Amino acid sequence: MIFGRSERSTPPVEPVTLKILVAGGFGVGKTTLVGAVSEIRPLRTEELLTEAGRPVDDLSGVESKHTTTVAMDFGRITLREDLVLYLFGTPGQERFWFMWDELSEGALGAVVLADTRRLDACFAAVDYFERRSIPFVVGVNCFEGAARHPVEDVRGALDLDDDVPVLLCDARDRESVKEVLVGVVQHAMAFAAERRAAEAVTT
């Protein structure tokens, strides 16, 4: 109450929370991406690579990597006052793929992070989301020293449908990662609208 009159305050906005997966092959930069954009200290489940894992961990092209995600990375970013994204980075190694089903439960969409030096490392993630009709974008992580390839060449190499966005990014840069996440939300919304329209036609 101010001078006999009640002060009207705008009620706080209850944000919409959305779940986004960050997937891709071993060593493509998933943990880096989540860490670059998260507004909270990311939850990481990294362990040191050991001699015991050498026979099953392909370190080709990432020989300097000493740790690996064994469960997930988790981060959060507020895109707008009314829109919060929760980010779940998936483990990239085949022996941890059994966790993907639980992590993908309730996900709006996904980022498949790709390294053009090892594009074959993200085939499994692309196949996973295509089979489950989970909308995804491909984020081409532009590593220093790596050759730059036209987007359409990457699309062709991954055999992607024309409607799957392919975006160049730097997983270390917050603004670059934010653009990719906005792309996921936009693509997922368009994907959902198309499905609703198709269902309306068939009913």
Total DSSP helices: 5
Major β-sheet annotation: 7 strands, mixed
Task: Pick out the low-confidence regions.
Answer: 48-57
Helix share of residues?
25-40%
> pLDDT average, as an integer?
83
Give the helix/strand class: alpha/beta
- For the record, give the distance between the C-alpha atoms at the N and C termini, rounded to a whole number: 55 Å
Sheet with the most strands: spatial strand order: 2-3-4-1-5-6-7
- N-to-C SSE series? EHEEEHEHEHEH
Q: Strand tally, please? A: 7
Shape: globular
Q: How large is the share of residues in beta strands?
A: 25-35%
Radius of gyration, CA atoms, in whole angstroms: 19 Å
Describe the fold and architecture.
The protein is an alpha/beta fold. It has five helices and seven strands; from the N terminus they run E-H-E-E-E-H-E-H-E-H-E-H. The chain is globular, with a radius of gyration of 19 Å.
Please give a quick description of this structure:
The protein has 203 residues and is an alpha/beta fold. The protein contains five helices and seven strands, in the order βαβββαβαβαβα.
Which helices and strands, and how do they pair?
Elements: E1 16-24, H1 30-37, E2 43-48, E3 67-80, E4 83-89, H2 100-104, E5 109-114, H3 123-131, E6 136-141, H4 151-158, E7 166-169, H5 174-202
Parallel strand pairs: 1-4, 1-5, 5-6, 6-7
Antiparallel strand pairs: 2-3, 3-4
